[in-house]
Design goal:
The chain is α+β, with helices and mostly antiparallel strands and 335 residues long. 60% of the residues lie in helices and 7% in strands. It is built from ten helices and four strands, in the order ααααααααβββαβα. Strands 1-4-2-3 form a four-stranded antiparallel sheet. α3 runs antiparallel to α5. The longest helix has 42 residues.
Length: 335
């Protein structure tokens, strides 16, 4: 800007340095911003609820004398605080299914069904760039949201982590809502939903099929979860009838199986001799069976983090394989 005499005058309005989206990134954000903002907004609300519930719980525990006093003596007064974990963990557990259906399945299926993909392919940007931007921006929003929720839920649960009456660490309510598992499960389900949409090319059909796939994936994951751990066996040789004969397991250990152990190292079912009418008869039966103690298989809680990272690594590898399929498929058929 200058005066009438030609002398330059500095303007007082500073140049805007706010980052702006442009090109393909702007197009993808513009197209899916309603879904992205809804996801981010819902995450913020859930985060606020987690912070509120944790503050309530910490106030109660502080009044109880925690951390100086242990939590083993918590009575029924703690029940409302323990019950608060249930609805939140259930909501977090549904996130992969919901996002797979409502974000993953329509992400490309809608473009293929309504012809938007042909319009994009006719522009200067390549299909690979379009697909990479779609997947990358969606993955970024999902990752930020799920990491924040996972960290917040773990932060809430940490003070009572050893209390199995609150949450069993091997259950989906705890294992699948903390650490890297929520991110891995969500990305895997959403990317698989995208692949289903690309193959079927119909939004509604893809959403229905993705829902069935997501539920099945959750069930399979639930069955395989414990297989990620290294089972430890504890044995005793003090008999099985004495009060101190059962092995002492670590706090919050998840017991998988228990059997009678014979002098020859064989395992007998715990129901052996259970039909004996008297205690003396049962003792004689166990002696005749050469039962010398217990054999207990369990998973210690110390393995939780390792199991989560192993499971997440498997899910990330599967997700990468599906992404590779999408790029290979998209080079010729993503129009």
């Amino acid at each position: 800007m200058s005066t009438l005499t030609g002398t330059p005058v500095a303007t007082d309005a500073p140049a805007s340095r706010r980052p702006r989206l442009s090109g393909m990134t702007w197009l993808v954000w513009r197209q899916h911003r309603a879904a992205y903002l809804t996801l981010l907004g819902a995450s913020v609300l859930l985060l606020a609820w987690i912070v509120f519930q944790r503050d309530r719980m910490i106030d109660f525990l502080t009044g109880y004398g925690w951390p100086a006093n242990g939590l083993d003596g918590l009575g029924t007064e703690f029940a409302p605080y323990a019950a608060a974990f249930g609805p939140v963990s259930s909501a977090l557990g549904l996130i992969p299914v919901v996002l797979g259906v409502f974000v993953g399945a329509p992400l490309l299926a809608g473009d293929l069904e309504h012809g938007t993909a042909k319009l994009v392919a006719a522009q200067s940007a390549s299909r690979t760039r379009w697909l990479a931007t779609k997947l990358g921006l969606t993955a970024l929003v999902l990752t930020v949201s799920t990491i924040a929720l996972s960290v917040a839920f773990g932060w809430w649960w940490a003070p009572v982590k050893g209390q199995t009456t609150v949450l069993d660490w091997t259950s989906g309510a705890a294992f699948d809502t903390t650490g890297p598992v929520p991110v891995a499960l969500t990305l895997f389900t959403v990317v698989c939903g995208v692949a289903i949409g690309v193959v079927l090319r119909r939004t509604l059909t893809a959403m229905v099929v993705t829902f069935g796939f997501a539920v099945a994936a959750q069930l399979v994951w639930g069955e395989l979860r414990l297989a990620l751990g290294d089972v430890i066996t504890a044995t005793t040789n003090k008999g099985v009838l004495a009060e101190d004969s059962f092995p002492v397991l670590p706090d919050a250990a998840h017991q998988i199986d228990q059997s009678y152990l014979t002098g020859g190292g064989e395992l007998l079912g715990w129901s052996t001799c259970v039909e004996s009418e008297t205690e003396q008869a049962r003792e004689l039966c166990l002696k005749q069976a050469d039962v010398v103690g217990w054999s207990v298989d369990y998973l210690p809680m110390s393995q939780m983090a390792g199991m989560q990272w192993l499971g997440a690594a498997i899910l990330f590898a599967l997700t990468a394989a599906v992404v590779a399929f999408l790029f290979l498929w998209g080079r010729k058929r993503l129009v």
